[in-house]
Design brief:
This protein is mainly alpha-helical and 320 residues long. Helix content is 77%, strand content 0%.
Length: 320
């Protein structure tokens, strides 16, 4: 089993998951059900997290198809390199909108906890971006299917795929990051800023759950969560710039794969502190329940693990 298998396993989840999320969202609006709305936002957030390994494993699948020459011509005569890169660009655009949808979904969940309702503007933003994302995901999925199934393409599409000469979106972004030396340096700086935000806010929340700073209620700490999520977003954006620019350095690196797994698990911990009642009911002087302590301890370990794997990329594996 290799990362190409992982991509084949995951690549249906974003599209099918968006159908489920949009369905739950519409049912929640029609039935005025807060629970269904909340469930749909959780689905959108989960798909946003899952879309990251789905996209990144796609580059590993490209390496397999092109026999270890991702930046050269494919040795398989039945595969169009132009079509692969077109799929990569469509997937990157869909990923961007998927992450925006996930960000608004999390913000809606956070606001619903503080306001005891979902703000209309937040729901409107989720509705708009989820529909756009579904369209882009469907297009990317269709192009991906055409790579190994040319029979589903029309004659005009097949001719255009072979004659495509323009640089696809993902390769254009990667070339820009490599060509402009200031871009990589700026992203490294912002990546560190995002890391400080994420680790700082996570530390406050986790240490409170573990018994320190008992005079602070979770209600007060809950106000800080958007700053931690902002840090995660900054790291995700800058990290994607790194990956798109030099994905061949990352896809086969075991340390990077572990980092990705730890990021997904850390995202689930953020969801716990966002919507579950146990931490929310924690007032000044209260001791956190065992479940909250376990989640806090695991979150602390996961964040440190992400930091460790990120810093060790140049020294472990073969990323650099």
């Amino acid at each position: 089993m290799n990362l190409a298998h992982i991509h084949l396993l995951l690549n249906h989840f974003p599209t099918v998951g968006m159908i489920i999320g949009i369905g739950l969202f519409l049912l929640g609006l029609a039935g005025k059900s807060e629970d269904l709305k909340r469930a749909s936002l959780v689905v959108f957030l989960g798909i946003a997290l899952l879309a990251l390994p789905t996209y990144m494993s796609g580059n590993a699948a490209q390496e397999m198809i092109c026999k270890g020459q991702p930046k050269g011509p494919c040795t398989d005569p039945g595969v169009s390199k132009a079509l692969i890169e077109k799929h990569e660009g469509a997937a990157l655009l869909a990923l961007v909108f998927m992450e925006i949808t996930g960000a608004f979904a999390w913000l809606g969940l956070w606001q619903s906890r503080r306001l005891s309702r979902f703000p209309r503007w937040s729901l409107a933003a989720v509705a708009l971006f989820s529909l756009v994302t579904f369209g882009l995901m469907s297009q990317a999925a269709n192009i991906g299917g055409e790579i190994r199934h040319p029979e589903i393409m029309s004659a005009q599409e097949a001719t255009a795929a072979q004659a495509a000469g323009e640089q696809p979106l993902a390769r254009a972004v990667g070339s820009f990051v490599i060509a402009k030396t200031w871009v990589w340096a700026t992203c490294e700086t912002l990546h560190f800023v995002g890391l400080c935000l994420l680790f700082g806010i996570a530390s406050f929340v986790d240490l409170r759950m573990l018994g320190m700073m008992k005079s602070i209620s979770f209600n007060a700490l809950h106000r800080l969560l958007p700053w931690g999520v902002l840090g995660f977003g900054i790291n995700m954006i800058t990290g994607m710039f790194f990956f798109v620019a030099a994905y061949d350095q990352y896809t086969t690196n075991t340390v990077f794969q572990w980092k990705l797994v730890l990021m997904m698990l850390a995202g689930l911990n953020v969801l716990y502190f966002t919507i579950f009642d146990e931490p929310w009911e924690l007032g000044p002087g209260d001791d956190a329940p065992l479940t909250a302590k376990f989640v806090a301890a695991s979150a602390f370990v996961l964040v440190i693990g992400v930091i460790f794997c990120g810093r060790m990329l140049p020294f472990l594996g073969k990323a650099f």
